Amino acid sequence: MQKIKSIYNHRFSPLIVLAFILFLLSFITRIILFIKSWPNLEFTALQFIGIFFIGFFYDIVVYSFFAIPVALYCWLMKDSWYQKKWQRILFFIFFFLIILILVANVGGEIIFWNEFNVRYNFIAVDYLVYTTEVLGNIWESFNIPLIVGVIFSVTAAILFFVQKKLNASQGISMRFGKRSIFFFVFMLFPIVLFFLVNNRIKNSSNNNYLNELGGNGIYEFGAAFWNNEINYEQFYATRNDTTNFKILRNFLKAPNATFSNDLLSIERQIKNDSPEHKWNVVLISVESLSGDYLKRFGNSENITPFLDSLIPHGLWFDHFYATGTRTVRGLEALSMAIPPTPGQSIVRRPDNDDMFTMGSVLQSKGYSCNYIYAGNSFFDNMGKFFSNSGYKVLDKRDIPDSMVHITTAWGADDEAAFNYTIQQCDKSFDIGKPFFNHIMTVSNHRPYIYPEGRIDISPTHQSIQGAVKYTDYAINNFIKNAKEKPWFNKTLFVIVADHCAKSAGKTDLPVNRYHIPCIIYAPQLIIPAIEKRLVSQIDLAPTILGLMNLNYTSRFMGYDIYHMRLGDERAFISTYQDMGYIKGDTLIVLSPQKKVKMYSSDFLTGANTLITGSKNLINEAIAWYQVASFQYKNGRYKSFKNSK
Hints:
The protein is of the alpha/beta class. 44% of the residues lie in helices and 14% in strands. It folds into 2 domains: 2-227, no CATH class; 241-633, 3-Layer(aba) Sandwich (Alkaline Phosphatase, subunit A). The protein has helices at residues 2-6, 14-37, 45-66, 68-76, 79-82, 85-116, 122-126, 131-141, 144-167, 176-196, 208-213, 217-227, 232-235, 241-252, 305-310, 327-336, 358-364, 382-387, 414-430, 464-483, 540-547, 615-633, and strands at 257-259, 268-270, 280-286, 315-321, 368-373, 392-394, 407-408, 411-412, 435-440, 491-497, 518-521, 529-536, 552-554, 571-574, 579-583, 586-591, 595-601, 608-611. The strands form 4 sheets. An 8-stranded mixed sheet has the order 6-5-9-3-10-11-4-12, sandwiched between helices. The chain has a 5-stranded antiparallel sheet with strand order 14-15-16-17-18, with helices on one face. Helix 14 crosses helix 22 (615-633). The protein is globular.
């Protein structure tokens, strides 16, 4: 008994106390989840033991991370402070908060398991984004005052139980050098485990319940946060891969496309009869430019006068839809022409280098390809993604200060970005290279600040209307400057939004919150027209390349809309977890737990009415989304040398 007591008479003994608490709560959680899963479990005696041994291993990993602040506290607190009464109060508050998180996690894991039958995944991470909806749902679904009371009571009881063991460390002196040795030896464990451990070690069974029981919810949450992906095959409705690819190859076939012999591939040779056009391309993806800001779609505020005036002079898309609700999702669709996959955009995922993009295609044709962003390209992983997938990345660090009129947290004003782009176009033209410059604007973003004297809405109002009108002004100014350049008549100017300003509605996927403007303007190259067919954001890249008659090997999942069959039009919309497929006025929604719902959708109000209908549409939706996941997961969306 004396030996047991003696282990707590050490400066770092709070680490032992924390280990006891965390392992006990993790064990209790695993037992509760095991009981809840009993009807779905099939296991041998060895697998049963494996649940707890593998689970204990993940518990150790989580403990090593959770213990870092405790170890840091024990290391840095001076002896003269460590024995003070005020420090003890501070220390107990600190420990109370740690225990509170661990106890609350037990309840959170049980609730999440009841809903999804898994440990935390990216859906849980997603809850951090949609806090209003999630907190409202939790408040309506559970007796929150009771639950909070229980959590605080259990936390207080645990702290009371371990207080003597924590007190035992308070009077122990230890020289700073010795404390440092203890601390840095301890830190070897979380550092090594961070690099050597992943959440796939637990997947030793064909029974997913057993695999999940062997995990640790906190670790899974961290893994989901870093990996940014929800496994499609595990959580969504699926069909046979061969059947899915047969459907997709049928939709993607075109007079100028020849598929490879691999039936589990959409790779195809695009070969045109007429000569290629080495036109320049400037693609402007505008931050948060909803369709309903334009007069064309009923807006009466006159905040996009230039874009409205441009419509009769370009190729205008009346029914053009964004794939998601964030910039990175729009960038994914515009560059990769792939439907959204569950979880985070591919732009933010770890294994996203050397992807097949519009930039990689044009780079193989001898183009100078730039991604130009007036902010810091580190944000949302844009710099890493584009620089490794066919583009040179230029951001606010490259824009000369003399060009910048105003800077916000998001970056330099749109005028600065456009003027810098003019410079890049000139440089490419001067050395005889065709160019592709993809610009991402930032001014149409809160706090809605822009240079004075440009428009009739003062920036001091900080209104979204003012920001939209300023961006419209900046685009107008850019086109005016470009018209003075020798490369203007051989350049396609593409103006499109990344997503809408608002995504919330009365339904989970309100179609009207994905309607965005898109126009291709090139008065010497493109015959003006109003395109009234349904078009997805993923169709833009192959359509542009199609207008240029380029021959290349394609892995795009988007259509060249001028080679698609009438009636095959469709669009994709999504949140992080709900995947929407629009065809006609019907919306198919694929959700976790393999849920599939069909709606009649009102494109003006976004209202969705639940219906029953064609099984073929459901199969189409599954095929598009499952193949997109297959393509990414199996490296089929990596780049390669395109045929010239």
